Amino acid sequence: MDPNLWELYLEGDASDEVMAILRLNDKGALPPGVRIVAQFGVIATCRIRRGDILRVRALPEIFSLKAPDPVVADAIDEGAEEIEIGPADVRRPDALIERGKGIVVGVIDWGLDFGHPNFRNADGTTRILALWDQQDERGQSGRNRYGYGRIHERRELDLALASRDPYQALGYDPADFDPQLAGMHGTHVCDIAAGNGTVGPSGIAPDADLVFVHLAARTGGFSGLGDSVTLLEAIDFVRATAGDRPCVINLSMGNMGGPHDGTTLVELA
């Protein structure tokens, strides 16, 4: 048995609802007493009562049941020098015709400056379809199907951008999550992938739409880059937001994240 799952079983009230990842024997045979949240074939994230963990693990529908596995960020070098963008920083070849129109670029990371001009249309409106701040704990849990965080859709982002202080209006400021108060990582990744070049060099797909998920761990006191459950649910959110449009997702997790041999439930999902 997964030691982390055993710890999850023992560490709190039996009536608590907890997160887990499961592998089904058959993707169409769902186990009783388990609430499926995001499903990828036979792999799914779920919610179960803590006291039901051992019972659920023994069900014939279940091939494997795992506790959330934290994703730990690499340490930030606070003494690192700031990197200047120079003329040699060309991200998009001149001869490249495709600009990403009709494509959704999902970035699962931390710290997005949603007000940056490179993520806005010519009329000032946002190119971001949705921003899910998984860390937000202001009571929206009953208003999204994942049960945590706060989802800001395009209309809400545009309203915030039209205000005097967009970050205060939305209740999301990328600098709040950065020890160096820059809030740059997710911003940088989104700009390389899909920035429109209003400031600095253009990204690879400047006409693509963006979806951003700011990761957060929902287990214990860990506050790094989420865990295996929140990661898979972030991927599910990007996929659902994209709908039937082609979608690509970037994960700059900053950590090894397992054996890379295709055996973990996250890799299988």
Low-confidence segments, given as residue ranges, are none
Beta-strand residue fraction: 15-25%
Biggest β-sheet: strands ordered side by side in the sheet: 7-6-8-5-9
The number of helices is: 7
Q: What general outline do the C-alpha atoms trace? A: elongated
CATH class of the largest domain: Alpha Beta
Distance between the termini: 20 Å
> What is the fold named in CATH at topology level of the largest domain?
Rossmann fold
Compute the gyration radius: what is it? 20 Å
Fraction of residues in helix: 10-25%
Regarding quaternary structure, what we see is single chain
Major beta-sheet overview: 5 strands, mixed
Q: What is the H-and-E element order?
A: HEEEHEEEEHHHEHEH
Mean pLDDT: 87
How many domains? The number is 2
Per CATH, the architecture of the largest domain is 3-Layer(aba) Sandwich
How would you name the CATH homologous superfamily of the largest domain?
Answer: Peptidase S8/S53 domain
Strand tally: 9
Structure classification: alpha/beta
Q: Could you explain how this protein is built, in words?
A:
- The two termini are 20 Å apart.
- Helices cover 20% and strands 20% of the residues.
- It folds into 2 domains: 3-66, 2-Layer Sandwich (Alpha-Beta Plaits); 104-258, 3-Layer(aba) Sandwich (Rossmann fold).
- The protein has helices spanning 3-10, 53-57, 154-161, 166-170, 185-194, 228-242, 265-268; strands at 17-24, 35-40, 43-49, 62-66, 104-109, 128-133, 150-153, 209-214, 247-251.
- It is α/β, with parallel strands linked by helices and 269 residues long.
- Strands 7-6-8-5-9 form a 5-stranded mixed beta sheet, with helices on both faces. Strands 2-3-1-4 form a 4-stranded antiparallel beta sheet, with helices on both faces.
- The protein contains 7 helices and 9 strands; from the N terminus they run H-E-E-E-H-E-E-E-E-H-H-H-E-H-E-H.
